[in-house]
Amino acid sequence: MSRADLDKDPHDVAAMFDGVARRYDLTNTVLTAGQDRRWRARTREALQLRPGDRVLDLAAGTAVSTVELTRSGAWCVAADFSLGMLQAGAHRAVPKVAADALHLPFRDAAFDAVTISFGLRNVADPDAALAELARVTRPGGRLVVCEFGRPTFAPFRVAYHLGLERVLPAVAERVSSNPEAYRYLGESIRAWPAQPELARRIAAAGWTQVAWRDLALGAVALHRARRPYRVVDRPAG
Fold it and tell me: What is the mean predicted confidence (pLDDT) over 11-25?
């Protein structure tokens, strides 16, 4: 079965997710002991959505995260570059778009809020993706990135990384439709920057008011930010 490497070639990543699509939601729920549902709810809350808001859910996979966002009354679109994932979520009644995170098919300032959950880590150029998300967000709009983080408690961090190396592949072997993909998952989590570094990169991509909240003792983190308002130059004199 297909898996990606840490160079994150887009074709390899898309093929890998096509391969896990059939049992993706079940595997995530098993691997997180059901915490994935809680993380989706926390992401929705962090976005501070209001009825009528236009929301982009990038790397939405089977759109289970998008359905959670619609509970706020916002209009939400699921975008992903894995056609297999979008097809696996075809039964979910939200708009779906095949989209590359580095070249989003949306106009400037199209959305009131944007989010990406457990997907930024899989993009070949995360900094460019963050800048592209800023482009399609209106001034004053919100960003939330839900992603794996660096546990802050050292003993837990050691146990967590051991689990990524040994437990995660063993569970995926029994549950996933593409167990090899979850070996990449563990590698990509270990290589991902800690929360302060990701916050710096979000700010460098054009976002302001960047902050984060640790979940699961820092194994997961919610980073939130705002798209700055444009500065209006005043006439001299």
Answer: 85
What would the two tokens of residue 193 be? Answer: 């920057």
Dihedrals phi, psi of 227, to nearest 5 degrees: -80, 125
Letter for the amino acid at 222? Answer: L
Q: What is the pLDDT of residues 96-107, one digit of tens each?
A: 999 999 999 999
Contact 52, 75 (CB under 8 A): yes
175: closest CA among 3, 7, 33, 2?
33
Whole-number pLDDT of residue 183: 76
Predicted pLDDT of residue 141 = 98
Its pTM stands at 0.89
C-beta of residue 225 within 8 angstroms of C-beta of residue 203: yes
The C-alpha atoms of residue 231 and residue 212 are separated, in whole angstroms, by 26
Structure tokens at 168: 């995660």
pLDDT digits (tens, 9 = 90+) for 183-216: 778 788 889 999 999 999 999 999 999 999 999 9
Structure tokens at 153: 């408690």
Classify the C-alpha dihedral 41-46-47-52 as positive or negative: positive
Q: Which residues pair with 142 in a beta bridge?
A: 113, 226
DSSP string computed for 157-199: HHHHHHIIIIIHHHHHHHH-S-THHHHHHHHHHHHSPPHHHHH
> For residue 82, what are its two tokens?
């894995």
| φ, ψ dihedrals at 223, nearest 5° | -100, 130
The C-alpha atoms of residue 153 and residue 156 are separated, in whole angstroms, by 5
Q: What percent of the chain has pLDDT over 90?
A: 65
